[in-house]
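Researcher: Please translate sequence to structure tokens.
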Amino acid sequence: MLRHVTTILAALLIAVAPSARAQSSRPQFEVASVKAAKPSDTGFMDTTPGRFVATGIPLRILLKEAYDLMDAQIDGGPDWINGDLWNVEGKAAPGETDESKITKMVQSLIEERFQLRFHRETRELPVYELTIPKGGPKMKVSANPGTPHGRMGRGSIEGTNFTVEILVKVLAHELDRPLIDKTALTGKYDMKLQWSREFDRSGNAPAPDQPGLFTALQEQLGLKLESSKGPVEVLVIDFVSKPTEN
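Model: Translation complete:
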């Protein structure tokens, strides 16, 4: 399934409220519902202008999506947050299409309906560092710097006026550890990256003529992923409860 880079770009602008409680001043859906999913409900999640829908999704996945986290960045909570499935839907007021606001609405909905209370800690965890190997970067500097735009598909990223910050945000969805930018690159670039994933969502094996992500990054963009340890912000669940259906 293709994921628009614009959705990921919006996540860069989201300021997560430091308080563990949803604030009345934060955006709220005009209409929202949370229900226990049926065994037949297929896992599906989508954000469209003015609307968020999740069908057959555990709370842990909802947290990862709403707060832009990886598994290692969520700690605590009962076992049911991993196994119990939920149907969640939120509709914003007519005309409200700002993606960053929709994400904040999802956060507010989760915190209210699941009575979620949490705090954040910085911990030393396994990470990947994005560095510049010998030979330097191979990315093309944008000729006409402007608003970033592009598209991400299965095993491909293509963007214009991309910063390394955006690239790191996109790549984080392909890795099993948080990614830290160590390149110190601040410019805007036109870039195209294609790699083979070990398996796609249907379980198919990768195309044999495509390199893996680590190799593709170095060969095509002149960047390198290195294993390390570093400070990672973790969301620690203090309290959460199953919602009453509505």
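Researcher: Any highlights?
Model: Residues 3-120 form one domain.
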